[in-house]
Amino acid sequence: MELQNLEMLRLFVGEQVRYGHRPLYEEVVREARLFGLAGATVLKGVLSFGHDMQFNTSKIMDLGTNLPMVIEIVDSAEKIDGFLPIVEQLVRDASGRAMLTREQVRVGIME
């Protein structure tokens, strides 16, 4: 298996942040696909805290929480660079807040 040097963009958004009638995380993935990025995955956090220091949890007694949704997108640095302004605009239009990380990754496809 040959490994490629790519980048991963990871976005953390609240599951209740909306872009129009859809969750923001769904809109980011939709835009990533339209932009032609290699792939995107959304993961749901079960426990978190952030800038407000409030715990968010998936425990049954806390159903009204705003759990973190983690969007991972992998592609070339150039493609990620081109996609970042779209992400910034989506977050701004959603009046939301997002944290992002970006890192180099080595990617291999196994079949």
From TrEMBL:
Highest taxon of the lineage: Bacteria
InterPro entries assigned: N-reg_PII-like_a/b, N-reg_PII/ATP_PRibTrfase_C, UPF0166
SUPFAM superfamilies registered for this protein in UniProt: GlnB-like (SSF54913)
Family membership noted in the UniProt record: Belongs to the UPF0166 family.
Protein name: Uncharacterized protein
